[in-house]
C-alpha cells in the first residue's frame, strides 16, 4: 500500500483522539459527579417525602420512578458531552424505546398497573391482603412490582399488572372484622345453655368490641349433630390472635361443663346377612346333634 495512506489513517486517528479524548474525560467526570448527585438527590427526596407525610406506597413508587428519570437524564447529559446531537439522541432513544417496548410489553403493563394501584388505592403499604392465593402484608410498591411478606416470613414479588387485574381481598381496609366460630353438638344437649355459655365466654375477651355484642345461633340441624355459629367483632389487626384465643377459651368452657362434641354414628341394616347367620346357626346345631348321636 501507498505510504501516504497509512499517514492519512494515522492523522485521522490522532484527530479523532484529539476530538474525543477531552470529551471522554469530561464525560467520565460528569458520570462520577452525576452518580454522587443522584445519591444526594435521592436522600433529599426521601427526607422530603417523609416530612411531608406522604403515603408509604406513594413514597416507594415515587422513589423508584425518580431513580429511573435521573439516570435517564444523566445518560442524556453524557451523550451530549460526547458530541451526540439532541436530535440524534432522541432518535436513538425513540428507536430503542420502540424495540424495548415490544420486548418488554409485560413491564409496561406492570408500570401501568402500578399507576392504577396508586390512583385507586385498592391497598397500601402495611395492609394485609390476599391476592392470587397469597396472603400477607404489603411491604413495598415499586414501579413494576409489589412485594408481600407472608405470615411464615416469605417475600412474594408480584407484577403490578397481574395484581391490578386480580381480585384483591384487603383485610385491613376496614377497622373491624368479624370472627366466626363453628361448633357441632349432640342432639341431647341443652342448646340454650350452650349458646349462652359460648356468648359469656366470648364476652370475657378484652380485645373484642361490644357494639355489636357477641352472639351465637343454631345455624343448622345436620344428620347427627346440631351446628352452631358464634360471632364477635375485633380490630382488623387483632383478628388472628383473637380468633385462636376465642376458639381455645370456648373449648375449655365446654370441657369444664362436660359438653362433648358429637361422634358420627351409623346404623347398618342387612336382612340377608341376618338370615345367613340364622341358617348357619341352625346347620351348626344339627351337625352337633348328629355327632352326639353317633357317639
From TrEMBL:
- Is Lipid metabolism among this UniProt entry's keywords? no
Organism the protein comes from = Mesonia ostreae
Q: So where does this one cross the membrane? A: 24-46, 58-84, 90-120
Q: What is this protein called?
A: Mechanosensitive ion channel
Source lineage: Bacteria, Pseudomonadati, Bacteroidota, Flavobacteriia, Flavobacteriales
Q: Which family does it belong to?
A: Belongs to the MscS (TC 1.A.23) family.
The answer to keyword RNA-binding applying to this record is: no
Domain of life, per lineage? Bacteria
Entry's localization field: Cell membrane
Q: Mainly localized where?
A: membrane
Amino acid at each position: 500500500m501507498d505510504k501516504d495512506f497509512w499517514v492519512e489513517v494515522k492523522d485521522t486517528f490522532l484527530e479523532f483522539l484529539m476530538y474525543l479524548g477531552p470529551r471522554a474525560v469530561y464525560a467520565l467526570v460528569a458520570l462520577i459527579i452525576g452518580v454522587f448527585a443522584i445519591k444526594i438527590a435521592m436522600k433529599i427526596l426521601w427526607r422530603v417525602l417523609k416530612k411531608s407525610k406522604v403515603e408509604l406506597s406513594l413514597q416507594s413508587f415515587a422513589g423508584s420512578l425518580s431513580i429511573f428519570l435521573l439516570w435517564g437524564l444523566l445518560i442524556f447529559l453524557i451523550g451530549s458531552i460526547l458530541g451526540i446531537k439532541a436530535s440524534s439522541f432522541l432518535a436513538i432513544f425513540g428507536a430503542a424505546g420502540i424495540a424495548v417496548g415490544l420486548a418488554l410489553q409485560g413491564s409496561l403493563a406492570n408500570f401501568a398497573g402500578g399507576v392504577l394501584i396508586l390512583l385507586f388505592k385498592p391497598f397500601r403499604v402495611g395492609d394485609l391482603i390476599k391476592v392470587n392465593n397469597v396472603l400477607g402484608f404489603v411491604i413495598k410498591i415499586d414501579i413494576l412490582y409489589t412485594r408481600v411478606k407472608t405470615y411464615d416470613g416469605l417475600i412474594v414479588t408480584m407484577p403490578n399488572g397481574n395484581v391490578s387485574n386480580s381480585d384483591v381481598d384487603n383485610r385491613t381496609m376496614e377497622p373491624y372484622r368479624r370472627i366466626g366460630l363453628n361448633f357441632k353438638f349432640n342432639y341431647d344437649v341443652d342448646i340454650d345453655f350452650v349458646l349462652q355459655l359460648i356468648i359469656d365466654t366470648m364476652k370475657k375477651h378484652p380485645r373484642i368490641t361490644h357494639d355489636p355484642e357477641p352472639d351465637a345461633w343454631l345455624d343448622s340441624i345436620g344428620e347427627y349433630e346440631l351446628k352452631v355459629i358464634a360471632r364477635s367483632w375485633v380490630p382488623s389487626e387483632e383478628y388472628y390472635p383473637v380468633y385462636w384465643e376465642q376458639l381455645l377459651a370456648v373449648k375449655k368452657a365446654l370441657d369444664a361443663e362436660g359438653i362433648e362434641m358429637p361422634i358420627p354414628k351409623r346404623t347398618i341394616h342387612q336382612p340377608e346377612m341376618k338370615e345367613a347367620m340364622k341358617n348357619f346357626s341352625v346347620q351348626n346345631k344339627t351337625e352337633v346333634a348328629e355327632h352326639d348321636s353317633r357317639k
